[in-house]
Amino acid sequence: MTDRGERLHQEKRKKAKMRKILKGFILPGHNSENLLSPRSVGLAAHTPHPCSGRCCGNPRCHCKGKDKLTLQELKEIERERE
Questions:
Q1: Distance, CA of 55 to CA of 57 (rounded, Å)
Q2: Are 45 and 51 in contact (CB under 8 A)?
Q3: Could you give the angle at the alpha carbon of 42 between the alpha carbons of 38 and 45, nearest 5°?
Q4: Which has fewest Cβ within 10 Å: 5, 40, 48, 57?
Q5: What's the number of domains the chain is made of?
Q6: What's the pLDDT score for residue 23?
Q7: HSE (side-chain half, CA atoms, 13 Å) at 77
């Protein structure tokens, strides 16, 4: 088990890293208050991959037919045919 101090340290480290990443998305001359608010930095640090869309998610959820299989499964089927 990790103690409270270590958990807080890890959370602080994650938030600092995410704040640095989010600063890269800000265009010069634009308002950065919403993007770098403590709430948005915390949300981004705890859920760095909120998207589960077609391009990011599991192919089984978004595709049909043969495209539904992963590359590993397609290779296995091809090996079985030979």
A1: 6
A2: no
A3: 140
A4: 5
A5: 2
A6: 82
A7: 7
